[in-house]
Design a protein that fits this description.
Elements lengths: L18 H8 L9 H10 L1 E5 L4 E3 L7 E7 L2 E5 L2 E6 L4 E2 L1 H6 L6 E4 L3 E7 H10 L1 H7 L10 E2 L10 H6 L2
Antiparallel strand pairs: 1-8, 2-7, 3-6, 3-8, 4-5, 4-7, 5-9
Helix pairs in contact: 1-2, 4-5
């Protein structure tokens, strides 16, 4: 490396975000009404994360510390050993809990591999303050355990609730 010494400061060059990333954000209902500039800011605030099947995203009774906007995949919600609902693309795990200040009412487990957009409590509150469309979307989250789709209305789950509860 000509001209560079170990430990010297290198200028950090920002590379443009892939267009595909912003398109995925725009396809998420929480961000669907945001402008391109707002999406770019949301992209810089949140972190896209891959989650393996079986990963526990939230535990019943624990404080919500993170909001996970589901981009792809599916998670199931279990309360007291019973399967009560699920989260699919477009839903948010933890949003309702952060806004209301309540602990998780269910244990939420990735049913299959997922991609989520993660935001801390302060990042979610910042987005809600900055973008009225995000705040409006948060207000539409169903009044169900942890804001999940009720089991009866959710897609068909491949998981047996009895098998799920033994995993935790």
């Amino acid at each position: 490396m000509r001209g560079h010494k170990i430990g010297s400061r290198l200028r950090r060059v920002e590379r443009p975000r892939p267009r595909r990333c912003l398109e995925r954000l725009a396809a998420t209902p929480a961000f669907a009404r945001c402008s391109a500039q707002e999406l770019a800011l949301i992209d810089s605030i949140t972190c896209e994360t891959r989650v393996r099947a079986g990963y526990v995203l939230a535990r019943e009774g624990q404080e919500a510390r993170q909001a996970n906007f589901v981009v792809s995949g599916r998670a199931v919600a279990v309360r007291g050993g019973e399967l009560v609902g699920g989260f699919g693309p477009g839903s948010c795990i933890g949003c309702r809990n952060i806004v209301s200040g309540f602990a998780h009412e269910t244990t939420i487990v990735a049913e299959r591999p997922m991609v989520v957009r993660a935001a801390t409590t302060s990042e979610l509150r910042l987005m809600a303050r900055l973008f009225s469309s995000v705040q409006a979307w948060i207000e539409t989250i169903p009044d169900t355990p942890d804001g999940c789709e009720p089991y009866e209305e959710a897609h068909v789950y491949r998981v047996n609730p009895a098998e799920l509860t033994t995993a935790f």
